[in-house]
Design a protein that fits this description.
The structure holds two protein chains of two kinds. By secondary structure, chain A is mainly beta. Chain A contains no helices and eleven strands. By secondary structure, chain B is an all-beta fold. The chains are: A mainly beta, B mainly beta.
Chain lengths: ~110, ~110
């Protein structure tokens, strides 16, 4: 069974631009969560989707948004990029309704110049 | 917040020694999970212990949970260089759809 895949793996953008990151969960998994990881703030929860519905959202500004499609694939979008958005963005999927035993993708490394 | 806080922040041991990491949290939980992250990569789920369990084993891993003290510990026995990684605990509250990770323990196993 294929693992969680994230595309692209690396991305360089400039301030003010927007970016879309993609995540394909493990087949059959319906819950997808997104995290931002930085050296200063650590791993921070962004949002979680289940069956195309956002069930929970972390404390991030509205520039961060996401969605989930009917095939469970998910995208997150960051608009008006700031230098502080440089981070490793991790996607995780889980089988059950509650986020137990999450399977993580390799992440997308975003650099904002 | 139910965020787990790991202790110590960093740990350096010799190969073959045991490594113990601790996690404390603030609210009642449904379960607590431990994850490992190798440098700059995705996290790997290690073990899940439910609130009604006190101890759980998986290979060289042993996890304990004390809900009265709101704490958990992860013991890695007979450590190997390949165990070098960051370890995170993630408590999950009842009816919660998110995991809140702590800052992790960075483990270095010297060959």
């Amino acid at each position: 069974k294929a693992g969680v895949t994230q595309t692209p793996r690396y991305l360089i953008k400039t301030r003010g631009q927007q970016v879309t990151l993609s995540c394909s969960p493990i087949s059959g998994h319906r819950s997808v969560s997104w995290y931002q990881q930085t050296p200063g703030q650590g791993l921070q929860f962004l949002f979680e989707y289940f069956s195309e519905t956002q069930r929970n959202k972390g404390n991030f500004p509205g520039r961060f948004s996401g969605r989930q499609f009917s095939n469970s694939r998910s995208e997150m979008n960051v608009s008006t990029l700031e230098l502080g958005d440089s981070a490793l963005y991790l996607c995780a999927s889980s089988l059950a309704g509650y986020v137990d035993e999450q399977f993580f993708g390799p992440g997308t490394r975003l650099t904002v110049l | 917040s139910q965020q787990g806080e790991e202790d110590p922040q960093a740990l350096s041991i010799q190969e073959g020694e045991n490594a113990t990491m601790n996690c404390s949290y603030k609210t009642s939980i449904n379960n607590l999970q431990w994850y490992r992250q190798n440098s700059g990569r995705g996290l790997v789920h290690l073990i899940l212990i439910r609130s009604n369990e006190r101890e759980k084993h998986s290979g060289r891993l042993r996890v304990t949970l004390d809900t009265s003290k709101k704490s958990s510990s992860l013991l890695i026995t007979a450590s190997r260089a390949a165990d070098t990684a960051s370890y995170f605990c993630a408590p999950r509250m009842d009816s919660s759809y998110k995991l809140i990770f702590g800052s992790g323990t960075r483990l270095l196993v010297r060959p």
